[in-house]
Amino acid sequence: MKTSGTEALKHAAAARALEFIESGTVIGLGTGSTVRPLLGLLAERLASGDLRDVVAVPTSEDTARRCREGGIPLVTLAERPVLALGADEVSPRLDLIKGLGGALLREKLVAQAAKRFVVVADESKLVRRLGTRAPVPVEVVPFGWDALLPFFRKLGAEPLLRRGSDGSPALTDNGNYLVDCRFARGIPDPAALARALAKRTGVVEDGLFLRMARVAVVAGAGGVRLLKR
């Protein structure tokens, strides 16, 4: 369960990240608990008129619903975002693991299309080596998904199919399965892992966001700081 202290850090990071948003821009909004405080703050700024003409590209149906509830206008990815906001782990090089919320494919599409990608996180997400704490989510097609498990193990992972509360396979918004690949000692070469996953038929996308983020807004006990690549 998330602690109130963790929620306070997420709120602080969201408040600082909001400063990157300017009136008249298209922004990409990530998915998960770290982004939710940002949605609330953005909705307040739009309602008060402090920000105007901001539209958003949501990376999941959950984020889209929250945006509609908050009065944040939505557009498609045909409108190229100026800024993408949204990480489950952050390395010193600002390489990321994302997708524990299940929206890694859409998040990566938006991050690649955006002119600038800003990470919002609390200090618990900082690691020296990717994969130390969080597994790498891998989105796979449902057909033959279990035939991919030996391949993941050869890469050094312990793969586990993500399941819903009823025990059935959890589905992404794209109708695919998610396999969480955990590495006991972290990932020694994230780039090599990403290349191997990209070549494998049946793998739709992975949660490795490498050399994409320019800035990380990180909140900790000592305040909010900016990390830059």
What this model shows, in words?
The structure is a single chain. This protein has helices spanning 4-17, 36-48, 61-70, 104-113, 149-154, 190-199; strands at residues 26-29, 55-58, 83-85, 89-90, 96-97, 116-122, 136-140, 158-161, 177-182, 203-206, 208-209, 215-220, 223-228. With 229 residues, the protein is of the alpha/beta class. The chain has 2 domains: 4-126 and 210-228, Rossmann fold, CATH 3.40.50; 136-206, ACT domain (Alpha-Beta Plaits, 2-Layer Sandwich). The strands form 3 sheets. A 6-stranded mixed β-sheet has the order 2-1-3-6-12-13. It has a 4-stranded antiparallel β-sheet with strand order 8-9-7-10. The chain is globular, with a radius of gyration of 17 Å.
Task: Spell out the blueprint of helices and strands.
Blueprint: H1 4-17, E1 26-29, H2 36-48, E2 55-58, H3 61-70, E3 83-85, E4 89-90, E5 96-97, H4 104-113, E6 116-122, E7 136-140, H5 149-154, E8 158-161, E9 177-182, H6 190-199, E10 203-206, E11 208-209, E12 215-220, E13 223-228
Parallel strand pairs: 1-2, 1-3, 3-6, 6-12
Antiparallel strand pairs: 4-5, 5-11, 7-9, 7-10, 8-9, 12-13
Helix pairs in contact: 2-3
Descriptive labels:
Rossmann fold, 6-stranded mixed beta sheet, 4-stranded antiparallel beta sheet, 229 residues, single chain, 2 domains, Alpha-Beta Plaits
Query: Got a strand count?
Result: 13
CATH architecture of the largest domain: 3-Layer(aba) Sandwich
Order of adjacent strands in the largest pleated sheet:
2-1-3-6-12-13
- For the record, the CATH class of the largest domain is Alpha Beta
Strand content: 15-25%
Compressed to H and E, one letter per element, the order equals HEHEHEEEHEEHEEHEEEE
Multimeric organization: single chain
CA radius of gyration: 17 Å
User: Any idea of the CATH topology of the largest domain?
Assistant: Rossmann fold
Q: What about the largest sheet?
A: 6 strands, mixed
Q: How many structural domains in the coordinates?
A: 2
Give the termini separation.
Answer: 32 Å
**Overall average pLDDT:** 93
Q: Helical amount among residues, as a percent range?
A: 25-40%
